[in-house]
Amino acid sequence: METTMRTCDRGSGSKLKLTYLPLAVACGTLPIAVWAEPPASEAVTAPVASATGDPIEIVTITAQRRREPAREVPLSVDVVKGEALERGGYQSLGDLAALLPGVNLNQAGGATGQSQITMRGVTTGSQVGATVSMYIDDVPFGSSSAYAGGGSSALDLGLFDLANVEVLRGPQGTLYGAGAMGGLIKYAAVEPDTGEFSVTTTGELSRKQGGESGHVLRAVVNTPLKPGVAALRATLYQRADGGFIRDLNHPGGASDGSTTSGGRLALLLTPNKDLSLRVTALSQRQRRDGAAAEDMNLATMQPVDGPDTMRRFIAEPVDVGNDLVSLAVKADLKWATLDVISGWQRSTNHGRMDPSAFYVPLLGAAGINAAGYALDYSFYNRKLTQEVRLTSPRSKIFEWLAGAFYASEEGSKNQHMDPLNAARQPVAPLLLDATFPSTFREAALFGTGTYYTSQQTDLSLGVRRSQNRQHLDNQLSGLFAPASQPAVDSSEGVTTWLLTARWRPAARQALYARVASGYRPGGPLPVIRNPLTGEPLNKPAFRSDSLWSYELGWKGDLLPNLLASELALYQINWKNMQVFSGGGGFGGIGNAGSARSRGLEWTLRSAPISGWRLSSALSVIDAKLLDASPDLGGKAGERLPDTARVSTALQADREFQLGGRDAYVGATARYTGERFNTFSAAPGIPLYRMPGYATFDVRGGIEFEQFALSLFIRNLGDRRGQTSADTTLSSLGGPGRINLIAPRTFGLQLSKSFK
User: Fold this and answer.
1) Residues 316-338: b if buried by 16+ CB within 10 A, e if exposed
2) Pairing status of strand 302-303 against strand 246-247
3) Which among 25, 71, 156, 270 counts the fewest CB atoms within 10 Å?
4) For residue range 567-595, what is the model confidence (pLDDT) as tens digits?
């Protein structure tokens, strides 16, 4: 009997889901505090007075590689301000995704550093590679390859000392390259201030209902080195998140606590008004004791041992490290602006998984008896990136942008699986020891041009040509390991396109149409040959998959300076979907048929009364397969996994004076509709329905001369929302692993600042 394992990335972020299939081991919207902006022709340095006398904040973004008001950008984009994140106690990628309807974070069975983020339904559940790109300022972070954890290692950066987070929906392949099929998330840090010295320290205490306490410690120092010319900004932080899930096999506290520690150092030099240089160094370490996953009986749909409990033979810790050093040079050449961005990054991910619920009964029937099993895994990726681009000055006739990009990755995926005795010590036989070194190279040229046919209309065209090369090796041993195969290589060229048309029928009104494409790189596959005939049993490579997005949108004021709205309708056609495949006595990565996603995104923002800010966001997504896929186990017309058809959010904030001091209160309500974790006949992965849920958060604070005191309550109603589900270990009767939102959480924050 041939026995191998499936240990490939899953869209949920549980990188190492194990299913008894002959597999190739090789495969291995609520925009907070964002209000109407003026057209580009208006100044963007001062607020615009509203009908109530309150200023309506102007929000500028860099979504199209130049600073411009968000309402001028012909695509669906959210801007979440760093200040708003701090006020609400939102500090992780999961917190950010929960604020944005239609943006989904899946951590089924996983933990910190094991997650997959998706937008607009662009997911098959089992993700070969990322469909949303992650950026820190102008540097892409994470692997573009399918072999270095790129499909399940979305960057979970601590949300501290950020100016804002830009969330671009829809494919961004022309300006941002590989992996930005569903959208892009860009973390924008606060820049050093060359004019003023300041220090801010923050302490926070929190506690989960029925769980454990947590804390945040943070310090930010900004010091001018030469006034108006040079400044240094340093940020240090630690966040300890108290858990609430208890492992009944390991008493002594919650099993899902986590600690995130990091720092950022930024140096800004502006020797003259035409030149600036920014050097940034960032380092972050995350550790989680285990996943916030409850064991669920799939037959009764009830917790196996009661709410917020699990049973694991071994603990499942995860350690993640992320490091980045970048240099950004901006020079005004008068006829164009030159940007040169260099980046060096390193990502590590080490963890342990307990697959005992599946392998104890499976291998017991084959005569291998063990008390349990342990799968140790790691991902490593080192990446160099270089981008050079020229951007024309603002023009009433024609604007252009042209650039070149290069990335070089060295990655590795490692897995080691042992049987364990009752003392949880490894015993013979060794089941698997596998290492997969890989490299990925990308070189691209890109450009866009915008022609203003009149003061009211313009057309834009963009194109990017990418050339990708990959190399994959393998070293395999153990009972489950196939014979090591020769190293393999692949190369491909991909072109992505962008076309937009925009019409401004009146002041502060804009209609746009957008057509854009995106892709994920293909890659090489070890060739398995028939031992009798020598004929290959699989293709030597899997192809890149691609999609085209067609979007119609409107941005404008319903009531001038009082009520603003944005509406986007889109259809996404996705073909050659990358999937995990099986056949011919092995498994690996292949390409399936097509899928389609249609949707609507609608936001409203208002400042109806002095001091009040109101906003709402709605996402409706209809994402489904167009072609049946045996590898996915999906039928034509079946919903794509992990995506709610309807999600919405409402927010209200009020700023006022209390005893002569600035104060605020606010509330956020969110609803996420039902989702399914996989397809109806997914091989070895039982279908599970996650019901819809609603949550309600409140916050408030007051500022003194040097102190600020704030309070927040997350999930005020203590709802048991299910965010993702992992059933890959459940086909032989094991429980499903259901990830839950945190229970009611109280937080108190105290900040001290001086200048």
Assistant:
1) bbbbbbbbbbbbbbbeeeeebbe
2) unpaired
3) 270
4) 999 999 999 999 987 644 455 788 999 99
Strand pairing class (523-524; 488-503):
unpaired
Alpha carbon of residue 89 to chain centroid: 19
DSSP string, 127-171: -SS-SEEEEETTEEES--STTTTTTSB-------SEEEEEEEES-
* 454 class by beta-carbon count within 10 Å (0-12 exposed, 13-18 middle, 19+ buried): exposed
Give exposure, 48-61, as e/b (b: 16+ Cβ within 10 Å): bebebebebebbbb
In the prediction, which pLDDT does 538 show?
75
How far apart CA 418 and CA 425 sit, in angstroms, is: 9
DSSP structural state of residue 426: B
DSSP 8-state class, residue 393: P
Sign, CA dihedral 656-657-661-663, equals negative
Residues 6+ apart with CB under 8 A from 559: 51
* Position 160 pLDDT exceeds 70: yes
pLDDT in tens, 185-217: 999 999 999 999 999 999 999 999 999 999 999
User: Which CATH number do you get for residue 417?
Assistant: 2.40.170.20
Return all residues near 250 (Cβ < 8 A) that are at least 6 apart. Answer: 312, 315
From CA 644, how far away is CA 672, in angstroms rounded?
Answer: 6
Whether 427 and 480 have beta carbons less than 8 Å apart is answered as no
User: Distance from CA of residue 679 to its chain's centroid?
Assistant: 22
412, 717, 566: which is closest to 31 by C-alpha?
566
The model's pLDDT over 277-321, given as tens digits with 9 standing for 90+, comes to 999 999 999 999 988 899 999 999 999 999 999 999 999 999 999
The number of domains in the chain is 1
Distance from C-alpha of 468 to C-alpha of 288, rounded to nearest angstrom: 35
- Residue 18 included in any domain: no
Domain of 341?
60-754
How far is residue 195 CA from its own chain's centroid?
A: 34
Concatenating the DSSP letter of every residue in 91-127 gives -SHHHHHHTSTTEEEE-TT--TT-BEEEETT---SS-
Question: What SS3 class is residue 548?
Answer: strand
Rounded to the nearest integer, the mean pLDDT of the chain is: 87
Given a contact cutoff of 8 angstroms between Cβ atoms, the answer to whether 58 and 38 are in contact is: yes
CA angle in degrees (0–180, nearest 5) for 112-114-119: 110
- The Cα 196–Cα 347 span in angstroms is 34
Q: Is the dihedral of CA 134, 208, 721, 100 positive or negative?
A: negative
Are the CB atoms for 14 and 64 separated by under 8 Å?
no
Reading phi first (left if > 0) and then psi (alpha if -120 to 50, else beta), residue 537 is in alpha
Lowest average pLDDT, out of 295-299, 354-358, 581-585, 643-647, goes to 581-585
Residue 22 scores a pLDDT above 70: no
Please work out, in degrees rounded to the nearest 5, the angle formed at the alpha carbon of residue 380 by the alpha carbons of 65 and 151: 60
Contacts of residue 717, defined as CB under 8 A and 6 or more positions apart, other chains included, come to 694, 695, 696, 744
In a domain, 344, yes or no: yes
Return the closest-CA partner of residue 345 out of 357, 327, 361, 329. Answer: 327
Alpha-carbon distance of 104 to 100, in angstroms, equals 8
Cβ partners under 8 Å of residue 395, min gap 6: 452
Report if residue 393 sits inside a domain: yes
23 lies in a domain? Answer: no
The number of beta carbons lying within 10 Å of the beta carbon of residue 370 is 22
